[in-house]
Amino acid sequence: MTGSDAGEVRFGFPVLIGDIGGTNARFSIIHDQTSEAGEPRIVQTADFASVDDAIRATVLDGAAQPLRSAILAVAAPVEGDEIPLTNCPWIIRPKRMLAGLGLSDVLLLNDFEAQALAVAALGMEHMEKIGGGAPVPGAARVVLGPGTGLGVAGLVHAFGGWVPVPGEGGHVDLGPRTPRDNEVFPHLVTLDGRVSGEDILCGRGLVNLYRAIALADGHKPALTAPSDITAAGLAGSDATAVETLETFTTLLGRVAGDVALIFKARGGVYLSGGIAQKIVPALKAGNFRAAFEDKAPHHALMGSIPVYVVGHPLAALAGLAAYARTPSGFGVETAGRRWQG
User: What pTM was estimated for this model as a whole?
Assistant: First the structure.
């Protein structure tokens, strides 16, 4: 691989891998280059003052031998020596982790960079297909994940390996298109006067959309939790929740189709995270796929691109584990994101 001498990257074992999101942090240990990741430890970020405290309490106290390296995926752009998480009060300080946790090597990746690695590492037994044709081998792929926020990343094949392309695609503009959209969108809570993908296509976005639909119809919102809205929408027990879920999947299809066009992702579009896994029936109802393909003049191209829901419960950890064992198989940029003691 080229780029930051990717073929020369090595990590000392045992390696701590971690997927740190806005709500939950997931950790596991890889003991050597041939072993699978160990039993995952999953914690709520709100239960700990810092990532260092979480690692000490859930990993270090029970580790059979000292950890040497850490590869952590974080829900934030990785810039500088202090990285504040986007949807969590934690601030990641790699230099402090080296000194305080006894590590000799810390690498930070974007959380959806790890999801992109997972798409390259996981087999099709972990995928639920939502229409389209067969993926083109070696073609670009994209991954989107509505969760605490909306993560977006690309994955391109070059120089003999897979290169993840992190970004902030969840913050693209999302505007009204139908007469019903024009009734609902004025009631959405926005950031700085615009509607971004993340204002709708995430957990809090579901609540935002449900509230806007209720207000558009002159009703007081009855549900306030994303899980209650998806459950009621799937069960058909609340008309506003049913419309919310249908609108959510339509808008997710629009954004997924836009990102697929940007990357010409003939290798497939992959929806990750708990929300996508829970709403598979709604995604298969037809409106998601129709919105995804409604990209004139490229209907034929979009119709051929497969969409999958990633069913693996810990996909990011699987991607990080694959990279930790064989970094030469991936074009991961380490410059400015790796700290060594």
Answer: 0.90
